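User: Fold this; tokens only.

Assistant: Input:
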Amino acid sequence: MATARDLIQASLRALGVLASGEVPTSTEANEALEALSIMLRRWASNSLDVFAISQDSIDLVVGKAVYSVGIGGDVNVVRPNLVVGAFIRDKNNNDYSLEIVDVSKYRSICSKFTQANIPSLLFPNYRYPLIEISLYPVPSENGYTLFMDSLKPFKEINDLSDEIEFPSEYESAIKWNLAIELAPEYGKRIDGATVALARDSLDTLERMNSRKLLSSPPILQTGKTYNIYTD
């Protein structure tokens, strides 16, 4: 997992300020951190969502199929925007991967409350203000913990040592666009290749944001809820 310092060093290397293996001074690093925070806030103000990968866990309950995730839910955390991976861990620390399924596959399951030792499927229902995650089969024994990786809105970097796990597309966009942000401070001219990489990586983020909205259930976009059980 990269730290804010790692992201800054990558940008300064791309800019030609640092050579491979060199590190910025304390002043350079903190000034770059300020520039990075300003850039991310500007992206957010321009409706370009920035997400980081976060992992949450919950002890599973025998016979319980559906868990709410979000502030005040069964998993009391910031509401995820997208579930990207999950696995089950047993009491002996053995891990079992879960398949993340869409609404059509989950709908096709005839008996959604069938019980077995370890679930194999997870369906995320992106309701608001809490999402619901449904497990299949439903756990029939205690001693299992669900670990879920998701994308959540990224707010602020407060310290150079802050660990942040961005999707690869975000790391690329931050690296090249931060290099452009920092160039005037170091009297550096930006070559065409760097400009193209910065522009293309930012365009990729915009397309990702657009697809995220278009792929949401239409009823969800109106602020209403989507209920698989009444579909």
